[in-house]
Amino acid sequence: MLKGLYDWMMAKAAHRHAIWWLAAISFIESSFFPIPPDVMLIPMVIAAPTQWLRIAMICTLSSVAGGFLGYAIGHYAMDSIGMAILGAFHLQEKFHALKPIIDEWGVWFIIVKGATPIPYKLVTITAGAFDFDLTKFTFASIVARGMRFLLVAALLWKFGPPIRDFVERRLKLVTTVFIVVLVGGFFAVKLL
């Protein structure tokens, strides 16, 4: 099933309305869709490198908007829809362990997890279920998703097709290194 969805998304990346498909996929991936929008983002940026910023921003804003749907599912329908979604991705056990982490690290948790290939739907649904502050959720989501998609698009714009394989295979490594550098920079500035 996932292979079929992946192939379908790749076909949509070449569609004449690809930007709208990217927006739709980015939106639904934030709450229930299994495949991240990077599958479309990468070939779209390679095909139109001068449009990298526009493509990444549409992906980011659509993902953040979709995050509100995930938040609403967690907030209003956790027992029915939220648990069914998390169960489909085998994330139920992780959900229960996140309450103390959300309480203590809220914004940082959303930024770090939202910027990595960890299913963003876990973050959005969990934030809603635990009634995390919506303003902080919005800020953290914009930062996290912006870092993720802008980083991937900027790498593709700068280095072109040769970086594609590296980004696709090492997306988790690339975003993790970026997050470590960013968080380390914040702590260094705070300590100085």
Describe the structure in your own words.
This protein has one domain. The chain has nine helices and no strands. The chain has helices spanning 2-13, 18-29, 38-47, 52-88, 92-97, 99-115, 120-129, 134-159, 161-191. The protein is globular and about 40 Å long. The N and C termini lie far apart (52 Å).
Produce the secondary structure layout:
Elements: H1 2-13, H2 18-29, H3 38-47, H4 52-88, H5 92-97, H6 99-115, H7 120-129, H8 134-159, H9 161-191
Helix pairs in contact: 1-3, 2-4, 3-4, 3-8, 4-7, 4-8, 6-7, 6-8, 8-9
Strand content: under 5%
Helix content: over 70%
Overall number of domains: 1
Give the N-terminus to C-terminus distance in angstroms. Answer: 52 Å
Biggest sheet details: none
The overall pLDDT, averaged over residues, is 84
Radius of gyration: 16 Å
Given the helix and strand composition, which structural class is it? mainly alpha
List the secondary-structure elements in sequence, H or E.
HHHHHHHHH
| Number of H- or I-type helical stretches | 9
Q: Which blocks of ≥5 consecutive residues have pLDDT under 50?
A: none
What does the overall shape look like?
Answer: globular
User: How many beta-strand runs?
Assistant: 0
